[in-house]
From TrEMBL:
Cofactor needs: Mg(2+)
Catalytic activity: ATP + H2O + phospholipidSide 1 = ADP + phosphate + phospholipidSide 2; a 1,2-diacyl-sn-glycero-3-phosphoethanolamine(out) + ATP + H2O = a 1,2-diacyl-sn-glycero-3-phosphoethanolamine(in) + ADP + phosphate + H(+)
Entries under PANTHER family matching the protein: PHOSPHOLIPID-TRANSPORTING ATPASE, PROBABLE PHOSPHOLIPID-TRANSPORTING ATPASE
Keyword entries, A-Z: ATP-binding, Lipid transport, Magnesium, Membrane, Metal-binding, Nucleotide-binding, Translocase, Transmembrane, Transmembrane helix, Transport
Protein name per UniProt: Phospholipid-transporting ATPase
Positions with biased composition (Basic residues): 299-313
Cellular component GO terms held in the UniProt record: endosome membrane; plasma membrane; trans-Golgi network
Region (Disordered): 1-69, 77-96, 103-142, 172-193, 290-347, 404-435, 701-723
Domain of life: Eukaryota
Subcellular localization(s) per the UniProt record: Endosome membrane; Membrane
MF terms (GO), sorted A to Z: ATP binding; ATP hydrolysis activity; ATPase-coupled intramembrane lipid transporter activity; magnesium ion binding
The P-type ATPase C-terminal domain, residue ranges: 1093-1320
Length: 1329
C-alpha cells in the first residue's frame, strides 16, 4: 500500500518512495470544487495527454458511494483535464515526473520514484520552509494549496532544477558515511541513507596494495636479509666489486621471490576460503512498492465489479483506481492508518557479501546467521511471505466493501492497523519464539531463547517496511543490547530518519528491544520455525568481528634464534676483516685505502652469513607442510601458515576451548540413582520395565474416546504388580516417580521434522541437558507428545496412547544464580477433562537443580552427598530431583502471595523468590539423582594425558558455566583423580583476590577453576601476580570467558613466560585466542569453519593434535635445527678457506673461488644433499607416542643452542684450515692446481658430512648425494677456466684429495662417535642402542 502522500519532504528521500497524485490528499472537510481544477491544471500540466487517453476507461469503472463523495471535485475538474493523475499508471508517472526535474539536470535515478514530489513541491518549500505539510503531522489547508498553485505557476523552469538539485543531489546527505561511534536508525526492508560497511568476512593478512610493503618490511627486519641487501648493493661500487654482480644479487632475489611467493600463496588460500564463506546464499525478503509491482512480479488484482460478481476471471488492466481509493481512505482516517499492504513481498537469493543493513533475512533451522540481526517474526509455516493470488483478491474485495459505510472519521494508528495486525497474528505462531545456538560466539552450550517483538510479530509481513529500528553503536558486548522498534504510518516515514512518531499527537507505537530480540553473526538457528530478521550490523561491525583480533604475520622462534646467531657470524666477519687489514698494517696502497680493504674483505666473507639459509629453511617448511597435509593419520589437515611448522615442536602451553573442541556438545543420560539402587548402561532396561508396569492403563471400549490417565497417586494395576515382592514394588514406585518427574520438570518442546520424506520427532530447549533427559525418559517409556504454555501430554512410545496429561500452573525457569528450575502442574485423570478447575486433579510441585542448592531444599537423607560426589568424580553433570504435593488451599495461598510479589516495585525478584522458598521449596521429597555426560571428542582422555607427559601445560578456556567446565575437566582427565580444584568465582574485592593468590602460592599442585568476572579482576589489578602463580599450576580452567579475555590470557602467558603458546578451538569465539597465540589450531566445527579459517593449522579432531605436535612438530624442529646449522657450517668453511688464502697472499683481499665456483658450491654441488636432511628422523612415530618425554626436551631448545652453534663453528674452522692449508702446502700457494684440490676436497667433504649427520636413511638422500657427486665429476671438464685439467687426471691429484679429505673428516667423525657413546641422546636410549 502506498504511504501517506501529502507529506512533501524538503530533504531527499533515502530510497525509492511512492508516487501519487496530490489531489487525492485533500481531506473531506477541505474539499472545494472551485479550487481543485486549477490545482490539477498546474500540478498535472505535463501529464495531460496521458491522463486524457485514460479518461473514458476511468468513467466506466464501478463506483461506490464513498468514492463518489470523495471524487466529486476531481470529476468536475476532469471535464477539462481528464482525471489528471488519478488514472495514470505509476510507472508512467515516474517518467513524466522525471521530465519535470530534468530542467535542472540534477536527477539521481536512485530516487526516481520520489522525483515528482520534488518537482511539485520544491519551489514552495524554498519559500515556505517552515510550513509542515504531512498529513500525519498537520492537515493541509486551502490557503496552503492555493499558495502552492501560485508558486507552481509563477516560478520558471530553472527554479525547478535548482530545487531538485538542492533536494536530490546533495551527495553529502545521500552518501554520508556511517559513524560507528553513534547510534543508528535502520529502516526495515529499505535502502539506508547511511553507507554501512559491507558484510564481508576477511581473514587475509594483506591487501593488494599493502602486500609488497608489508612483506618486504617483514623480510628486511631480519638482520641477515638486511646484511645481504647491503652486500648486494655494495657491488654497484666498482672498487668493492668482486666477481659477477649476479653472484650476490641473484641469491637475494631468489630468497625474496620464494618467501614472498609463499606468503602470497598462503594469503590467496585464505582469501579463497573467505570467498567461500562470503558466497554463501541467503534468502532475502524483498519489499516492492505497490505501484512498481504492476510491471514486475505481483499479479494484478481484480476489482469487486459486475464481472467479479459473475465469476469472471478477467483482470482490470489498471490497478491505480484501487490504490487511489485505498490512498484516499487512509487520508480520510487520518494518522496514516491503512487498509491495504504497504508493499508486496517476494523472495530473492543473495550472497552473504551482498547483504546490507536493513535487509530482511528468511532463516530456517540450521542456518548460520550471517550478520547481527533483530528478530521481527517467527512463524511455523511460510504462508506469510507468499500470499496466494486468491488471498490478495479477497483482501482487495474486502477493502472495497468494508468501508462503504464508514463515517470517514480520523482514527488512531493503533486502530487503523488492525487488519495488518490480525493478518500477521494469524499467519504465524502467536508466540514469536525461536531458539539459537551461540556456541560459535560465546562457547555456551545451552540454546538461547529469542523472541520477536510483539509489535513486529503481530504485523503482516507486507507491513514490516513501516518499522524502524534504533540501535546503539557497534560494540563487542555479546550479552548486551538496547534498542527501540518503532511502527510508523508509512514506509516513507520509516525511511525518513527525521520523522518522529510522536509529532502527530497520536500514541507512539514503539517497543523496546533487548538481547532477547537479537541473533548475532555466527549463531545458528535451532528451531523448526521460520524466522524473519532485519540486519542491523554487518561485516567488521558485528559482535563477532569486534571480538576478533586482526590477523598478524607470525614468525617462528627458530627464525629469531637464527637471527641472533647471524649477528654473531656478522660480528665474526667484521672482526676477521679488521684483523687481516691490521696484520698487513693500516697503510694505504695505490689501489686501495685501508677501509676499502675492510669492505672488500666483508664482501669476500659474506658467505659466513649464508643467504641460502633462508632458501633452505623456507623449502624445508614447505616439505613439512606437505607431510602434514598428506598424513593419513590426520585426515583433512590443512596448513594455512607454512612459516611456523617448527614451532609445533616447541609448545609449552596449550590453551583449549571446551565446547566442540574437547566435547561434542552432545549430552547423554548415563546414570540415575533412586536412593537404594543405581541404574546405568544395560540396567536401564529394568527402568523401562518398571515404567511400563507403572503406567499401564487397561483399555476399555467405553473409555476409548476419553481414556483414564495416570497420576502420581494412582496405584499399580493388579496384573502389573502381581507376584512382585514388597521391596520390588517400592523400588518400582520410586523409579516410576522419578521418571515421571523428569518427564515433566523441564522446558522442552517436542517438534516434528521432515527428513527425506518421513517425519522425525525431535526436541528443542535452551539446555542440551534437558533434551538428553527427555530423550532418556522417552527411551524408558514416557514420551513427551505435546507441550504448550498451558499443558503437557505424555504418551507411551509403544502404544502411542496418552498416559499422563497435566495443566501447567507455574514455571520457575533455571537461572545461573538459582541453579534450579521448578514447575507446578495439575494432573488430569481424563484426556478431555472439560473446563479447568483446581479441584479436579492433584497439584504437584516438581523441582530439579544442582546438588549444592537442592541439598537444603529436599528432606533429610543420608545418601545424597555421597552419590553426587561419586557422579562428579566420574565427570557427570548431576541434577537432584524432588517433588511436593500441594493442596488446593496451599496452592491458592501461594498463588495469591506470588502475584502480589510480582507486582512489587522494589526488590521484585527477591520477593518472588522468597514466596517460592516459603511455600514450595521446603521439605521436598527426594526422588533421585541423575548423571548426564557431555560426550567427549574421540580419544580426548589419552590425548590430554600424552600431551601432559610431553611437558605441555594445558589450560581450558570456555564461555560455559562453572559447573559444566568442572565436569568436563574431570571427565576428560584434565584434572587428575583426587587433585584438589580451587574455585574462584564472583570475585569483586581486591582483598579477596589477594587471598586467593596467596592460597595458590601455597598449593601449586592444585587446579585453578576461575570465572570470567574474577579473571577480569585479576587481569585488571593483579596481572603479573596472577600470571606468575597461574603458570606454576598444572591445570587452569577459566569459565565464562569472553573472546577478548581468551586472547588476553594467551598474550599474557607469552609475555610473561617467553614460551611458545598454542591455542586450539572450533568456534567464532575462539578466533581472537587463535590469532593471539604463537601457533593457532582450528578444528572444523559442526556449525562453522571460522576458527579453522583463521588458524595456522586446521584439523578435524582434537586427538589429531597429538600427532601434529609430538610427531610432525618434533620432526620439523629437529630437522630445521640440523639444516640451519649445516648451512651455516657450509658457508663458514668456505669463509675460513678464503681467510687462509688471503693470509698466504700477504693479506690481500682477493677472491679464492670466483664466479661460478661460488654460485655452484652453494647450489648445484651441495644444495640437494643438504636439503635432503629435511627427510631425516631419529625415531619412528610409535616411539614418539610411547615416549612423549622425547618432546619435552625440545622445549629447552637444545637442538639449536649457542653450545651446538659453537661446536659447528669449531668444526668449520678446523676443516677449513686443514683443507686450504694442506692444499696450499701440497700443491702451490696460488694457482689452478691448488684451486682444483681445495675445491674438490671441499665439495666431497660436504657430501660426506651430510652422510655422517643422517640418522635414518631415505632413498631421496642416497639419490641426492650420489647424484650430486656424479654431477660434480661430470662438470669438471667444463671448469677449465678455474682448474688445471691436466693435473686432475694424475695420481698426484687423487692422493692429495684423499689424504686431505681423510684428515678433515676422520677426527670429526671419531669425535661424534665418542660423544654418542659417552653421552647418548635420548632417542638412542629409547631405541636401546
Amino acid at each position: 500500500m502506498p504511504p501517506s502522500n501529502s507529506y512533501h519532504q524538503a530533504e531527499p528521500p533515502d530510497s525509492p518512495v511512492d508516487e501519487s497524485d496530490s489531489d487525492l490528499e485533500i481531506d473531506l472537510e477541505e474539499l472545494d470544487p472551485h479550487t481543485l481544477p486549477g490545482h490539477e491544471q498546474a500540478g498535472s500540466r505535463s501529464l495531460l495527454p496521458q491522463a486524457q487517453a485514460r479518461g473514458a476507461a476511468e468513467q466506466r469503472a464501478p463506483r461506490i458511494a464513498l468514492r463518489t463523495l470523495r471524487m466529486g471535485g476531481l470529476r468536475r475538474g476532469a471535464k477539462r483535464n481528464g482525471y489528471g493523475e488519478l488514472g495514470r499508471s505509476r510507472d508512467g508517472g515516474d517518467e513524466d515526473a522525471e521530465a519535470l526535474l530534468r530542467d535542472g539536470d540534477a536527477h539521481d535515478p536512485r530516487y526516481s520514484d520520489g522525483s515528482a514530489r520534488a518537482g511539485d513541491d520544491a519551489p514552495l518549500l524554498i519559500q515556505h520552509g517552515d510550513e509542515r505539510t504531512s498529513t500525519g503531522k498537520r492537515r493541509r489547508s486551502f490557503t496552503g494549496d492555493s499558495l502552492r498553485n501560485l508558486s507552481l505557476r509563477r516560478l520558471p523552469a530553472f527554479v525547478f532544477g535548482a530545487a531538485a538539485d538542492q533536494g536530490y543531489d546533495n551527495n553529502e546527505e545521500l552518501e554520508r558515511e556511517d559513524d560507528p561511534s553513534s547510534s543508528r536508525q535502520v529502516a526495515v526492508g529499505s535502502s539506508q541513507s547511511t553507507r554501512f560497511p559491507p558484510n564481508i568476512i576477511s581473514n587475509a593478512k594483506y591487501t593488494a596494495w599493502g602486500f609488497l610493503p608489508i612483506t618486504l618490511y617483514n623480510e628486511f627486519s631480519f638482520f641477515f636479509n638486511m646484511y645481504f641487501l647491503l652486500v648486494a648493493l655494495s657491488q654497484a661500487i666498482p672498487a668493492l666489486r668482486i666477481g659477477y654482480l649476479t653472484t650476490y644479487i641473484a641469491p637475494l632475489a631468489f630468497v625474496l621471490v620464494i618467501t614472498l611467493g609463499k606468503e602470497a600463496f598462503d594469503d590467496i588460500g585464505r582469501r579463497r576460503r573467505d570467498n567461500e564463506a562470503n558466497s554463501e546464499e541467503y534468502t532475502v525478503v524483498k519489499f516492492e512498492e505497490p505501484e512498481r509491482n504492476l510491471g514486475s512480479s505481483r499479479p494484478m488484482k481484480k476489482l469487486k465489479s459486475a464481472h467479479a460478481r459473475k465469476g469472471s476471471k478477467r483482470f482490470i488492466p489498471e490497478r491505480d483506481r484501487l490504490s487511489d481509493i485505498q490512498e484516499e481512505e487512509e487520508q480520510t482516517e487520518g494518522q496514516g492508518a491503512r487498509k491495504g499492504p504497504s508493499s508486496y513481498v517476494s523472495e530473492i537469493s543473495k550472497k552473504s557479501r551482498d547483504l546490507k543493513v536493513g535487509d530482511v533475512l528468511k532463516l530456517t533451522k540450521g542456518h548460520r546467521v550471517p550478520a547481527d540481526v533483530i528478530i521481527l517474526k517467527c512463524f511455523s509455516h511460510e504462508s506469510s511471505v507468499h500470499k496466494t493470488h486468491d488471498e490478495s483478491i479477497a483482501e482487495d474485495a474486502a477493502l472495497l466493501l468494508d468501508h462503504a459505510d464508514e463515517p470517514g472519521q480520523g482514527s488512531s494508528d493503533t486502530a487503523g492497523a488492525t487488519d495488518a495486525t490480525d493478518q500477521g497474528a494469524a499467519e504465524g505462531s502467536a508466540t514469536g519464539e525461536t531458539f539459537i545456538r551461540t556456541d560459535q560466539l560465546d562457547g555456551e552450550t545451552d540454546w538461547k531463547l529469542r523472541l520477536a517483538s510483539p509489535l513486529s510479530q503481530n504485523l503482516a509481513t507486507e507491513e514490516l517496511v513501516r518499522l524502524r529500528v534504533t540501535a546503539g553503536r557497534p560494540d563487542r558486548k555479546v550479552n548486551e543490547f538496547a534498542g527501540t522498534l518503532e511502527l510508523l504510518p508509512s514506509r516513507q516515514d520509516a525511511i525518513n530518519s527525521a520523522a518522529d512518531p510522536h509529532d502527530d499527537g497520536s500514541p507512539s507505537k514503539a517497543a523496546p528491544l533487548s538481547i532477547d530480540n537479537t541473533a548475532w553473526a555466527n549463531t545458528v538457528i535451532a528451531s523448526q520455525a521460520t524466522t524473519l530478521a532485519v540486519i542491523i550490523y554487518t561485516g567488521p561491525q558485528t559482535r563477532s568481528a569486534l571480538s576478533t583480533s586482526p590477523s598478524r604475520s607470525k614468525t617462528g622462534l627458530l627464525e629469531y634464534e637464527i637471527n641472533s646467531l647471524t649477528k654473531i657470524l656478522c660480528f665474526l666477519t667484521l672482526a676477521i676483516s679488521i684483523i687481516l687489514v691490521a696484520l698487513e698494517g693500516f697503510g694505504n696502497t695505490q689501489d686501495n685505502v685501508w677501509y676499502v680493504k675492510i669492505m672488500r674483505f666483508l664482501v669476500l666473507f659474506s658467505t659466513i652469513v649464508p643467504i641460502s639459509l633462508r632458501v633452505n629453511l623456507d623449502m624445508g617448511k614447505s616439505v613439512y607442510s606437505w607431510f602434514i597435509q598428506r598424513d593419513p593419520g590426520i585426515p583433512g589437515a590443512v596448513v594455512r601458515t607454512s612459516t611456523i611448522p617448527e614451532d609445533l615442536g616447541r609448545i609449552e602451553y596449550l590453551l583449549s576451548d571446551k565446547t566442540g573442541t574437547l566435547t561434542q556438545n552432545e549430552m547423554e543420560m548415563k546414570k540415575i540413582h533412586v536412593g537404594t539402587v543405581s541404574y546405568a548402561n544395560d540396567a536401564m532396561d529394568e527402568v523401562a520395565a518398571y515404567v511400563k508396569q507403572g503406567f499401564h492403563i487397561a483399555t476399555s471400549a467405553d473409555s476409548s474416546s476419553n481414556p483414564t490417565l495416570a497420576t502420581p497417586s494412582s496405584s499399580y494395576s493388579a496384573a502389573a504388580s502381581a507376584g512382585a515382592t514388597r521391596t520390588r514394588r517400592e523400588i518400582g514406585s520410586r523409579v516410576r516417580d522419578v521418571v515421571l518427574a523428569l518427564a515433566l520438570c523441564h522446558n522442552v518442546t517436542p517438534t516434528a521434522e521432515e527428513i527425506d520424506g518421513h517425519v522425525e520427532n525431535s526436541y528443542q530447549a535452551s539446555s542440551p541437558d534437558e533434551i538428553a533427559i527427555v530423550r532418556w525418559s522417552e527411551s524408558v517409556g514416557l514420551r513427551l507428545a505435546h507441550r504448550d504454555r498451558k499443558g503437557m501430554v505424555l504418551e507411551s512410545p509403544e502404544t502411542g496412547r496418552p498416559v499422563v496429561k497435566v495443566r501447567i500452573l507455574d514455571i520457575f525457569p533455571f537461572t545461573s544464580e538459582g541453579k534450579r528450575m521448578g514447575i507446578v502442574v495439575q494432573f488430569l485423570d481424563k484426556l478431555h477433562p472439560g473446563a479447568p478447575n483446581l479441584e479436579n486433579g492433584e497439584i504437584w510441585f516438581y523441582q530439579k537443580g544442582a546438588d549444592t542448592v537442592m541439598g537444603s531444599i529436599v528432606s533429610a537423607n543420608d545418601w545424597l552427598d555421597e552419590e553426587t560426589a561419586n557422579m562428579a568424580r566420574e565427570g557427570l553433570r548431576t541434577l537432584v530431583v524432588g517433588r511436593k504435593r500441594l493442596s488446593v488451599k496451599e496452592y491458592q495461598e501461594f498463588s495469591a502471595k506470588y502475584r502480589d510479589a510480582s507486582l512489587a516495585i522494589n526488590s521484585r525478584d527477591a520477593g518472588m523468590q522468597a514466596v517460592v522458598s516459603q511455600y514450595l521449596e521446603r521439605d521436598l521429597e527426594l526422588l533421585g539423582v541423575t548423571g548426564v555426560e557431555d560426550k567427549l571428542q574421540k580419544d580426548v582422555k589419552p590425548s590430554l594425558e600424552l600431551l601432559r607427559n610431553a611437558g605441555i601445560k594445558i589450560w581450558m578456556l570456555t564461555g560455559d558455566k562453572v559447573e559444566t567446565a568442572r565436569c568436563v575437566a574431570v571427565s576428560s582427565k584434565l584434572v587428575a583423580r583426587g587433585q584438589y580444584i580451587h574455585e574462584i568465582s564472583k570475585l569483586r574485592r581486591k582483598d579477596a583476590a589477594q587471598e586467593g593468590l596467596d592460597f595458590l602460592r601455597s598449593k601449586t599442585d592444585s587446579c585453578l577453576l576461575i570465572d570470567g568476572e574474577s579473571l577480569s579482576l585479576f587481569l585488571t589489578h593483579f596481572r603479573r601476580e596472577f600470571i606468575s602463580v597461574a603458570v606454576l599450576l598444572p591445570t587452569v580452567v577459566a569459565c565464562r570467558c569472553s573472546p577478548t579475555q581468551k586472547a588476553e590470557v594467551a598474550r599474557l602467558i607469552k609475555e610473561y613466560t617467553k614460551k611458545r603458546v598454542c591455542c586450539i578451538g572450533d568456534g567464532g569465539n575462539d578466533v581472537s585466542m587463535i590469532q593471539a597465540a604463537d601457533v593457532g589450531v582450528g578444528i572444523v566445527g559442526k556449525e562453522g569453519r571460522q576458527a579453522s579459517l583463521a588458524a595456522d593449522f586446521s584439523i578435524e579432531q582434537f586427538h589429531h593434535l597429538t600427532k601434529l605436535l609430538v610427531w610432525h612438530g618434533r620432526n620439523s624442529y629437529k630437522r630445521s635445527a640440523k639444516l640451519a646449522q649445516f648451512v651455516i657450517h657450509r658457508g663458514l668453511i668456505i669463509a675460513v678457506c678464503q681467510t687462509m688464502y688471503s693470509i698466504a697472499l700477504n693479506f690481500r683481499p682477493e677472491g679464492l673461488y670466483k664466479d661460478w665456483l661460488m654460485v655452484g658450491y652453494a647450489t648445484v654441488y651441495t644444495a640437494a644433499p643438504v636439503l635432503s636432511l629435511v627427510l631425516d628422523k631419529d625415531v619412528d612415530e610409535n616411539l614418539t607416542n610411547l615416549y612423549p618425554e622425547l618432546y619435552k626436551e625440545l622445549t629447552e631448545g637444545r637442538s639449536l643452542s649457542y653450545r651446538t652453534f659453537f661446536v659447528w663453528v669449531f668444526v668449520s674452522i678446523y676443516q677449513g684450515c686443514l683443507i686450504q692449508g694442506l692444499s696450499q702446502v701440497l700443491t702451490e700457494v696460488d694457482g689452478p692446481r691448488m684451486v682444483a684440490v681445495s675445491y674438490t676436497v671441499l665439495v666431497l667433504n660436504e657430501l660426506l658430512m651430510v652422510a655422517i649427520e643422517i640418522t635414518t636413511w631415505h632413498w631421496v638422500m642416497v639419490v641426492s648425494i650420489v647424484g650430486t657427486f656424479l654431477m660434480f665429476v661430470g662438470s669438471i671438464p667444463f671448469l677449465g677456466g678455474y682448474f688445471d685439467l691436466e693435473f686432475i687426471l694424475t695420481i698426484g691429484f687423487l692422493w692429495r684429495v684423499v689424504a686431505i679429505g681423510a684428515i678433515s673428516l676422520i677426527p670429526t667423525y671419531a669425535g661424534k662417535l665418542i660423544q654418542r657413546t659417552m653421552k647418548p641422546p635420548s632417542y638412542r636410549k629409547v631405541q636401546g642402542i
